[in-house]
Amino acid sequence: MASPGEASVDETHVGKKKKLPARYWQELQEEERKDENKVKSDGEQSKEALQQEEDKTQKAKKRKQDQSPSDGEKVKPESDPFPGPAPIPEDRLQKFKRKDKLKKPHRKQHKLRDIIARSEDASEMAQKQAARFDLLLPEEAGFLEGDEDEDTCMISQEDIAEAVDITSGAKYFNLKLSQFGPYRLDYSKTGRHLLLGGRRGHVACIDWASKQLMCEINVMESVNDVKWLHTEAMYAVAQKKWLYIYDSNGIELHCIRKFNDVLRMQFLPYHFLLATASATSFLQYLDVSVGKEVAAICTKTGRLDVMCQNPHNAIIHLGHANGTVTLWSPNQKEALVKMLCHQGGVRSVAVDKTGTYMVTSGMDKKLKVYDVRTFKPLKSYFLPAGAACLSLSQRGLLSAATGDVVQVYKDVCSMPVTKPYMAHRLRGTVWGLHFCPFEDVLGVGHGDGFTSMLVPGAGEPNFDGLDANPYRSAKQRQEWEVKALMEKIQPDLISLDPTELAQVDQATWEQRHQDRVEVLGFDPLAKEKFVPKYKKKGRSSAGAIERRKKQVAHEEQRDVIRKSVEDKMKMEKERKERERKKAALSTQKSALDRFKK
Amino acid sequence: TFTWLKTFCSRPPNETADTGLPAELMLMVMQPGGPGIPQCNARSPTLFTINTWLVCSLLANIFVAIIFPFCKRVPLRYQMKVKVIARNPDDYVRETKLDIQRVPRNYDPSLHPFEVSREYTRALNATKLERVFAKPFVASLDGHRDGVNCMAKHAKSLSTLLSGSCDGEVKVWNLSKHECVRTLQAHEGFVRGMVVRYCGTSFFTVGDDKTIKQWKMESPGYGEEEEPINTILGKTVYTGLDHHQNDPVFATCGQQVDIWDEQRSSPIRSFTWGVDSFSSVHFNPVETELLASCASDRSIVLYDMRESTPLKKVIMTMRSNTLSWNPMEAYYFTCANEDYNLYTYDMRYLAKPITVHMDHVSAVLDVDYAPTGKEFVSASFDKTIRIFAKDGGHSREVYHTKRMQHVICIKWSADNKYILSGSDEMNIRLWKANAAEKLGVLAPREREAANYSQKLKEKFQHHPQIRRIARHRHLPKTIYHQTKELRVMKEARRRKYANVRKHSKPGSVPVVSEKEKHVVTVVK
Fold first, then answer.
1. Average pLDDT, chain A
2. Of B385, B413, B437, which closes a domain?
3. Which residues make beta-bridge pairs with A432?
4. So what's the ipTM on this one?
5. Which residues between 38 and 57 in chain B have a beta carbon less than 8 angstroms from any beta carbon of chain A?
6. Is B117 within a domain?
7. Rounded to whole angstroms, how far apart are CA atoms B335 and A415?
């Protein structure tokens, strides 16, 4: 008995929830049904009347059918095969999640409730939009898959370089620089530029993608470490005695005599801080935007030649000969955390991009993974030769150098690993390891020069143009530099938890008051001692003064005491009342008392 | 045998471009050994179709001819799949110099570390810049020969302002040109009140000479006398005037509140409630039949024009000078009081004000709401102008200059951008409503940046350093000291009251909130 309109309603899979507005024929049908019921219940009725009614309905139906094609189309709602907003995968949403939802405040705080509700809506929308946008990212990450019975670590660099396209294949290359001995290296933040520093004084910067040499100098001194500063226009070189800053043409800009015997350096790009670790066990911070030393911390732990930074919170990790790893910020003279990681000295430390994992290797030939948020060990591996250098890539690949072999591991932090993902043997002992940002390339500095390896799946495929753009023009770089300097984070904001600034300081009033007293050196809210006024006519005799003093003495305490006494009395009274009731109850006879002896 | 090595590459390398074949096929590297059926395992199922096979065999010829020279022979034992990141620079660099630079974005939070600290730094910079750019004074309109006693906004034209001075002179100003376009001697003695008719074609003035005059808005032609359209000679002095929103009816106040029809020369209604003098009267802009007036017996009286008696009144501890209705919320009005405060009332519940707005250090003389109804501006005898949020207890902004004397009248312009103040020393001053706002047309990027920094400032407004900078205002020495003094006095009063409570019988001295303190009674 379905009318065309109703049929269309049934067809749509959307319409089930939504009820269409009532139509005139629907009412009619209901009436019909009622009529039918009536007929059934009543049994025999005047058939004529029934016939008439049926005629009527038939006519109505005919009319409807006549109108139906146009009418039906009008009535039919626009059926959307994909109603509502497009679904977003849960894991992608999770990626953009900033923090958990707040607990709703009490209804009394309706203003705060409103504000929180509104801000939560906004952040949820932002999260969703960002997750949607994720789909549009142009590039995908690299990967390497072997045959079923094949280890990916057996695939040689040459094979990979052959297999991939020519421009990518050209990223595997060797520089034979055997003269100036083992090399340290650094890639710039965009990954376009490479800085090489040979132990025997050779410093070269290269636009490695186009293989253009930007400058090459010999500083005629031993070089301990090299580091790019915020742009590819300047770099720091830790030489035998002092720290030097050169520009990309090889011109010496500064010789910083405050920083001596530097062994290792780290650059904190958002703080514009160059952190240096020296042989004299000093950890020093240089603000490169103003050229001032921000902090110099004597760590008192001997020669500091193991160093890395946590890119998530700009904390410096130092490895020591006694097997400890210490965490430092420029705001504190003491280590924030000391962790005993190895038996025997620490050889290398690396922290991943998200600041979750720390990987250490030690003289005990172990490779350990720690959770640096909780400072707990997660995994421990035994490497027969031990790892001298460690480096973590943007996507979490770990490269470890053992002697002249570089091994790359996948998923070291999350699951137990038995085999390396890739391995490559070099001509000399490895001295420096560095993954190139935004590329599937691992740079290895060794005794015989430099090797650029292909490690598929190492780099982040999609860069953010406003943060680090490998393809930026000179103008864009200038723009970026100004913006970056404008939002330079002050060194005092470095702390273990970088989101601390967004949290509510819930220190109690007493705590804050105590801090204030400590800072001021006196209690500003303390009451002055009562000094009685001098009164004439002999009323200020010693006795009178004492009496007056007594009147005011312990005024506040008196209130408190009075109150507490009252409370005590009240409680006592209640207790007595309760006991009385209990006693009354116990004296009452119960039916069970007859069993008592 | 054939061995297939399938490489997935996101971009075709340069060498393959010239053959014009699909990238996937071009990238298959074959190890030559002799023709045969390709042995493929399930990993590369796409290659099984016959079509592909044909193409492949075709390709074998092309391969040997074209690609083979480029490929080195590799003894491959394996089938491996490899992909490395290979970006085509053309996708990331602009094509010509005329294009804008391409900026690919990736919003992944792990690529943007120190989010909070960077935003905080940005917010701090934005707050500092706001203070640097806070230059609220726009222009001064001089020309009056006595203190400016009243002002009126034009109902239709944003750029027109009318002002009346203490010597009976009325001036019409063009605000965009900062010049006076017309001057007329309207009254003898003060011009007490002035209002523009809702159509904008004429305006009314009342003065100390007991007259109500209606004037044409456009100036008289050459040779014509400057004469009012209509003059009503009253019995008493009129002190205030307001016009109905959309009817030809206006109200005056003096010894009583009169409702006038424009066509008649006598009031259609007069309200009195045992008071001898009213200082101002105002129509409600939303509920257009309602009026409120401030009386000299410290009361605020509410009227309904349709009734013959007043509705109710609230008596406060001190006299209110004027009041202003909230143009967006019909029930609310704010009155400027002699006790240095402003009070926002809900007209339904007059027993206590909704908010007490404190900060002035002398009597408040005038108040006017922003057209958005979210803020209002007040003028005070202490020679400053303050801007309050409608529900804020303290002002968000204070304006003053060395030369500005007691500010008598104040108006917030109808486009929500400017504030106009008329003061004792014969000048009208034009201020920005937002001190740091950039005037003129903003480019879209500029506006976006401004919105962004505004949001950041809002987000971090409670951080101590940012709040300190945002709150900092330079005040004249006298006001600064007076504020301090008032604070001490208030604290002393509070202390005294606390002591009285402490030493009297519990319950006999109740706690009276600041809001309740200033209301004496409500009469209905």
1. 86
2. B437
3. A445
4. 0.77
5. none
6. no
7. 71
